[in-house]
Design a protein that fits this description.
about 260 residues, alpha/beta, Rossmann fold, six-stranded mixed sheet, four-stranded antiparallel sheet, 9 helices, about 35% helix, about 25% strand, binds adenosine-5'-triphosphate, binds magnesium ion
């Protein structure tokens, strides 16, 4: 798919992204090490895309950042503060994760799906939660469909609801793991445009993606992982136009 970035965003909600630093992060499943001393710096308000072959550890690494799976060593710094020392529940309000499957409540409307998270996690009153949920659904272009249930929304629209739900927590960083790979091809672009809009409006984003066009257009930094390590990192043009390592050269020749 070719990806062209949307028009510059001049209005709407502005996000205040924080810095995210991964320092020598290692992770294992039981005793098999799958992430090996990964260091990545994401500056506030910038987007880093992680690319790499299947099984290279991209999902595991994102799960380590918000501690759905605990790193075995190293550190993750959110706005300079160790994420590994925070309460995981608190960390997950500050770092939103959106993955392939949206996990919306089927019996609740889009508005209720977002508002419920605000009441449960942030302890908001019902009226406040409905007000904030409506604003975030507006941000993702679903203001008109806030009373639809998930089954009455397209896959792309459901993914937008999931993104609105994460944004409602006012995260400082958003993690995306193949957020568009379960979508029908014609719906992919809308969600990618939404993500690009968040990037333009100041969110800090760490995005695992197979969409090389998106990585090239939207990323400030691209990281190529293989076998649990960072093999190469740099600007999109450094990685896509002048890959240094044979492994990245081979990977690009297979996916581009
Ligand atoms: N729950 C698990 N238990 C044991 N090993 C796992 C588990 N999840 C992943 N792994 C292994 O960890 C390694 C990294 O997997 P991971 O899912 O992070 O890769 P990935 O880069 O996200 O791949 P893909 O592009 O296919 O999503 C792989 O070798 C995988 O088999
Ligand atoms: Mg994965």
């Amino acid at each position: 798919m070719t990806y062209t970035s949307p028009l510059p965003v001049t209005d709407g909600h502005f996000y205040r992204g924080s810095s995210l630093e991964l320092r020598d992060v290692s992770m294992a499943y039981v005793d098999i090490e799958v992430i090996r001393e990964v260091s990545i710096d994401v500056e506030p308000g910038t987007t880093t895309c992680i690319i790499g072959p299947s099984g290279s550890g991209k999902s595991t690494l994102l799960r380590g950042v918000n501690r759905l799976h605990e790193p075995t060593s190293g550190d993750v710094l959110l706005a300079g503060e160790s994420a590994l020392k925070m309460k995981p529940e608190r960390l997950r309000t500050r770092v939103g994760l959106v993955f392939q499957h949206f996990n919306l409540f089927p019996d609740h409307t889009a508005l209720e799906n977002v508002a419920l998270a605000l009441r449960n996690v942030k302890g908001m009153s019902k009226s406040e939660s409905l007000r904030v949920a409506a604003a975030r659904l507006d941000d993702v272009g679903l203001g008109e469909r806030s009373d639809h249930r998930p089954r009455d929304l397209s896959g792309g629209q459901q993914q937008r609801v999931a993104i609105a739900r994460a944004l409602a927590m006012e995260p400082e960083v958003m993690l995306f793991d193949e957020a568009t790979s379960a979508l029908d091809p014609e719906l992919v672009k809308g969600v990618l445009n939404l993500m690009a809009g968040l990037a333009q409006r100041g969110m800090t984003m760490l995005v695992v993606t197979h969409e090389m066009g998106f990585a090239r257009k939207v990323a400030d930094q691209v990281v190529f992982m293989d076998e649990g390590r960072v093999v190469e990192a740099g600007t999109p043009s450094q990685l896509f136009d002048a890959p240094q390592s044979p492994r990245l050269q081979r990977f690009l020749s297979e996916v581009l």
